[in-house]
């Protein structure tokens, strides 16, 4: 779960560990390509990175909606959480395709 910065909304520092894992996976792929490893193993690593990035993207979107957007609309919109949940649901469904 992301924390919120009082002035900015979402705190991106909370995502750094996830991104560093992806960075490590990418370095492993580069090494495997340089070493001419088996293609299927490389493809599986690529798919793993893609899934991790999609998950990261969703966490950023959730943080944005629950932080930045919610803060901006709180005074003028009564059903903010319902709207945020709808948008999150749409993105989650799109990521499953």
Topology:
Blueprint: E1 4-5, E2 9-10, H1 16-34, H2 39-73, H3 80-96
Antiparallel strand pairs: 1-2
Give Rg in angstroms: 17 Å
Share of residues in helices: over 70%
CATH superfamily descriptor: Metal-sensitive repressor, helix protomer
Name the CATH architecture: Up-down Bundle
Using brief descriptors, characterize the structure shown.
Methane Monooxygenase Hydroxylase, Chain G, domain 1, 97 residues, two-stranded antiparallel ribbon, mainly alpha
Describe this structure in words.
By secondary structure, this protein is mainly alpha-helical. The protein is about 75% helix and about 5% strand. It has one domain (about 10-95): Up-down Bundle (Methane Monooxygenase Hydroxylase, Chain G, domain 1). Strands 1-2 form a two-stranded antiparallel sheet. α1 packs antiparallel against α2 and α2 runs antiparallel to α3 (about 80-95). Mean pLDDT is about 85; it is low at about 1-5.
What is the structure about, briefly put?
With about 100 residues, this protein is mostly helical. The chain contains three helices and two strands, in the order ββααα. Residues about 1-5 have low confidence and may be disordered.
